[in-house]
UniProtKB/TrEMBL annotation:
GO terms for molecular function: oxidoreductase activity, acting on NAD(P)H. It comes from Labedaea rhizosphaerae. This is NADPH-dependent 2,4-dienoyl-CoA reductase/sulfur reductase-like enzyme. Gene3D superfamilies: 3.30.390.30, FAD/NAD(P)-binding domain. SUPFAM superfamilies: FAD/NAD(P)-binding domain, FAD/NAD-linked reductases, dimerisation (C-terminal) domain.
Length: 376
């Protein structure tokens, strides 16, 4: 069976890895628009940006691995069309057949016109090149304006402070990370950054004058799923590529995973599109099994992590559209703590900060009735 993987990111590389580990011997080709082998993005705003990690540490495998496992990576090759009815895909080199296809095209940074037109150097952070450019720019920019107090904005703020830049972060919500963590934990992140000297401006839109006052502008206002290929092929698309519980698109021999997959989650009971590292890996594994004949639903709870200054955190679960009615915090919000978001007395999401013994326990708490200290 010839398997085509469109997108050479973490999700795509995981599919190829798992196919070979499961003993699949047929042709596997990864079509990668970027000139690189598949790589992981989280270090680009953390260790690599700070200069603590070697740039080469981001690659999922080295070239020898792909050769030894007979996985073809077509670097610098963008897929321009797929035709699910004829089972062919198109590149600049012409048409190529496939039997099963996995879409793993990821996402790209949401652009901001005000920033693009502000007259200052502007950086968006997604690729190895962006990270390199940002590191160089930070080392020569006394002051940085960061638009967006989400994960990437805050991680860049932490890196910029440690490189000695004056940093202002502009976030429209009342607290950073408000949409995911709510006001209580969002405030803990606000305090963390203010404690490290960040000028955090909340609850107001950034202006051209704010940006003009900085030497460098970094925009981190979210990402847009890359769905053009799927949409042009007539696949069902709505905030990502619509997939069923088993990650299959509206066309039976085409699957979609990672940042682009808008997944009908059987445990959460609603659709969810997750832009996280763990989701790219775990959906990649599930889809490899389903390509080889399983029909397994993807049931894992969303998970993500961040590192900022000396704070490391993990978060499991999903509050979702129904929201939460209570959050219980155990520990010290300025140090190590655990938090449990509950709806109708049931934990729907949980996190820890600086409490690495809690990783398994917070995961196990999801779906249980909350009892104080339950994650002990
Ligand atoms: C700076 C940064 C820091 C992050 N930090 C964290 C973190 O701390 N924790 C966490 O959980 N998550 C983090 N993430 C999110 C995580 O990296 C993503 O969720 C993950 O990369 C998604 O993997 P993917 O394979 O779906 O997509 P991607 O990594 O975006 O890979 C998709 C690839 O497909 C290619 N492509 C697109 N269209 C085509 C085409 N038509 N033909 C061929 N190739 C194509 C793209 O060029 C890209 O290389 C971070 C992301 C960034 C950018």
């Amino acid at each position: 069976m010839t398997i085509a993987i469109v997108g050479g990111g973490l999700a795509g590389a995981t599919v190829a890895t798992e196919l070979r580990e499961r003993g699949h011997e047929g042709p596997v080709t990864i079509y990668a628009a970027e000139p690189h082998l598949p790589y992981e993005r989280p270090p680009l705003s953390k260790g690599v940006l700070l200069g603590n990690d070697e740039p080469d540490s981001v690659f999922v495998h080295d070239l020898d691995w792909y050769r030894e496992h007979d996985v073809v990576v077509r670097r610098g090759t963008r897929v321009t069309a797929i035709d699910p009815a004829r089972h062919v895909l198109g590149t600049a080199d012409g048409e190529e057949p496939y039997e099963k296809l996995v879409l793993a095209t990821g996402s790209s940074p949401r652009r901001m016109r005000l920033a693009d037109e502000c007259g200052k150097p502007v950086v968006y952070l997604r690729t190895i090149e962006d990270s390199r450019r940002l590191r160089e720019a930070l080392s020569s920019s006394p002051s940085v304006a960061i638009v967006g107090g989400g994960w990437i904005g805050l991680e860049v703020a932490a890196a910029a402070r440690s490189m000695g830049c004056a940093v202002a972060v502009f976030e429209m919500a009342e607290q950073p990370l408000h949409a995911v963590l709510g006001p209580e934990i969002g405030k803990a992140f606000a305090d963390l950054h203010r404690g490290h000297g960040v000028d955090l401006r909340l609850g107001a839109a950034v202006t051209a004058a704010d940006l003009a006052a900085a030497d460098l502008v970094v925009v981190g206002i979210g990402a847009v799923p890359s769905v053009e290929l799927a949409a042009d092929a007539g696949l069902a698309v709505d905030n990502g590529v619509l997939v069923d519980a088993t990650l299959r698109t509206s066309s039976p021999d085409v699957f979609a995973i990672g940042d682009i997959a808008n997944h009908d989650h059987p445990v959460l009971g609603h659709r969810v599109r997750v832009e996280h590292w763990d989701n790219a890996i775990e959906q990649g594994k599930t889809v490899a099994h389903n390509l080889l004949g399983d029909d397994s639903p993807y049931e894992r709870q969303p998970y993500f992590f961040t590192d900022q200054y000396d704070l490391g955190m993990e978060y499991v679960g999903h509050v979702g559209p129904a929201g939460y009615d209570e959050v219980t915090i155990e520990g010290d919000l300025a140090g190590a703590f655990r938090a449990y978001w509950q709806r109708d007395g049931v934990v729907v999401a949980a996190m820890h900060a600086n409490d690495w013994d809690a990783s398994d326990a917070i995961r196990a708490s999801i779906g249980t009735s909350f009892a104080k200290g339950a994650a002990g």
